Each structure stands twice: as C-alpha cells, then as structure tokens.
Amino acid sequence: MSETPGNEQNVEATPVEETSLEEGPVEAEAAEATGHPAVDAVLSSLERLDDLPVGEHPPIFEEAHEALRSALAQARDGAPGDQPHKH
C-alpha cells in the first residue's frame, strides 16, 4: 500500500489552557424590576437558586411558572387593580 503525496496531514497539538470551575462565584445580575409586583416577586424568588443544589431547582421553577401563569390570567381577566393595555 503506497501513500499518495499531499494526502498527509501535519497536525500539531495545540496546547489547551486549563481552566478551573473553582475560580470563584459567578456574579449574577440582579433582575431588573418590571413594575408588576407579582412578576417582580417571582424574579426575586429565583435569586435563591444560587444557594441551592441543582436537584432542588425544579420545584422553585414550578412555583415561579405557576405564579407567572396566575399573573397572566389575572391580567387577561382584568383583575382589580390591573388595567389591560389598549393597543
């Protein structure tokens, strides 16, 4: 079996920088206020995720999802204090 000139690839190993996941905590930006108290409360509740193991996140997300659905339903139904936006 003979090799055809030009088909050889010269691949040089490129050094890979080692990085550590232990470089320090990642600073999460604080959630910007939306002006809607129910939505702002949900966003604030999500800040506690940083202190919990990932396995404990799903119930927090489920609570947040339900609270947001409720806020949307109230806005849609014209709950007291909520004025629907006119387009």
Describe the structure in your own words.
This protein is mainly α and 87 residues long. The protein has a domain at 37-77. Helix content is 36%, strand content 0%. The chain has two helices and no strands. The chain has helices at 37-46, 57-77. Helix 1 runs antiparallel to helix 2 (57-77).
Short description:
The protein is mainly alpha-helical and about 90 residues long.
Key descriptive features of the protein:
single chain, 87 residues, mainly alpha
Set down the secondary structure blueprint.
Layout: H1 37-46, H2 57-77
Task: Work out the helicity level.
Answer: 25-40%
**Proportion of β residues?**
under 5%
Largest sheet: none
* Residue-averaged pLDDT: 74
Terminus-to-terminus distance? 75 Å
Low-confidence stretches: 18-27
Please give the count of helices: 2
Category by helix and strand content? mainly alpha
**Tally of extended strands?**
0
Order of helices and strands: HH
Task: Give me the Rg, rounded.
Answer: 26 Å
What general form does the structure show?
A: flat
